[in-house]
């Protein structure tokens, strides 16, 4: 039985508004015993908050079914960094790094890794410059990016995401980022490990032509794009093309039956 990787924002909801059909589709997934995992670049809140948000839309899940960049980054830091890290993430997300040795943003202590996440309005000049200064210490610390998403669709329109912040710091410091979110192949590979399935038996469902579709295809995963969230008509004409395009998450069961019946 093939498995499914679901994006969240833009697929099941936009901002605080649920996209119709999400709860029914997830009920169908469970009834069919289809292995699944929510794969999101959200770095401004912990998995527990995402579980609560989904519950508000009538969608029940648990942290074990959600893979976020902070979770992947914590694992990478444990395996690759021996010193202290400094976090540029939201207060809520800091809880995901409780087992990692940390220093404060204004500390002059040696830094082994600088972790960059979505701070929203918290990104001002002073904050970006603090991250830049940490990256200019010696020996050069790792620059760990919690995703490289360019923008996201909020209720009031498009907003910059973490990608442009990481790019600015990379340009200024010369340090190449270690990316923990979509579209990095390593992030999709971590998801496949959790599902216990090969890429050829997995489908990614998302709205982002680059982060979801392009990232999945680069990892060998079939990509289905929904016409919700940040979908634009221009996505159908660009250099990246989804393997299939459906109206919304509500259309997934019919598409699935056509392609995986029996």
Write the layout of secondary structure elements.
Blueprint (H helix, E strand, L loop, with lengths): L2 E4 L6 E2 L2 E2 L3 H10 L4 E4 L7 H10 L9 E2 L1 H12 L4 E4 L13 E2 L9 E4 L8 H11 L6 E4 L5 E4 L2 E4 L1 H12 L3 E3 L5 H11 L6 E5 L2 H10 L3 E5 L17 E3 L5 H9 L2
Helix pairs in contact: 4-5
If you had to describe this structure to a student in words, what would you say it looks like?
There is one protein chain. The protein is an alpha/beta fold and 262 residues long. It has two domains: 118 residues, Rossmann fold, CATH 3.40.50; 98 residues, Rossmann fold. 32% of the residues lie in helices and 20% in strands. It contains eight helices and 15 strands. The strands form four sheets. Strands 5-4-1-13-14-15 form a six-stranded parallel sheet. The protein has a five-stranded parallel sheet with strand order 7-6-8-9-12, with helices on both faces. A hairpin with a 2-residue loop joins strand 2 and strand 3. Helix 4 packs across helix 5. It starts with a strand and ends with a helix. The model has no long low-confidence stretch (mean pLDDT 92).
């Amino acid at each position: 039985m093939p498995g499914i990787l679901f994006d969240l924002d833009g697929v099941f909801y936009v901002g605080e508004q649920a996209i119709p059909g999400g709860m029914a589709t997830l009920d169908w997934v469970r009834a069919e015993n289809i292995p699944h995992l929510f794969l999101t670049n959200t770095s401004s809140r912990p998995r527990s908050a995402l579980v609560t948000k989904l519950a508000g839309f009538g969608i029940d899940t648990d942290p074990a079914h959600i893979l976020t960049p902070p979770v992947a980054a914590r694992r990478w830091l444990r395996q690759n960094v021996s010193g202290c890290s400094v976090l540029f993430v939201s207060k809520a997300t800091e809880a995901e790094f409780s087992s990692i040795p940390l220093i404060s943003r204004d500390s002059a202590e040696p830094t082994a890794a600088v972790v960059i996440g979505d701070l929203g309005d918290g990104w001002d000049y002073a904050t970006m410059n603090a991250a830049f200064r940490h990256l200019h210490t010696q020996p050069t610390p790792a620059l760990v990016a919690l995703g490289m998403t360019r923008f996201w669709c909020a209720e009031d329109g498009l907003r910059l995401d973490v990608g442009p912040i990481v790019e600015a710091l990379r340009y200024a410091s010369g340090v190449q980022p270690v990316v923990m979110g979509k579209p990095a192949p390593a992030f999709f590979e971590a998801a496949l490990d959790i599902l216990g399935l090969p890429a050829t038996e997995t489908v990614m469902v998302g709205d982002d032509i680059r982060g979801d579709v392009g990232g999945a295809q680069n990892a060998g995963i079939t990509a289905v794009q929904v016409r919700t969230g940040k979908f634009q008509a221009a996505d159908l004409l660009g250099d990246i093309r989804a393997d299939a395009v459906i109206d919304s998450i509500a259309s997934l069961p019919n598409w699935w039956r056509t392609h995986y019946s029996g």
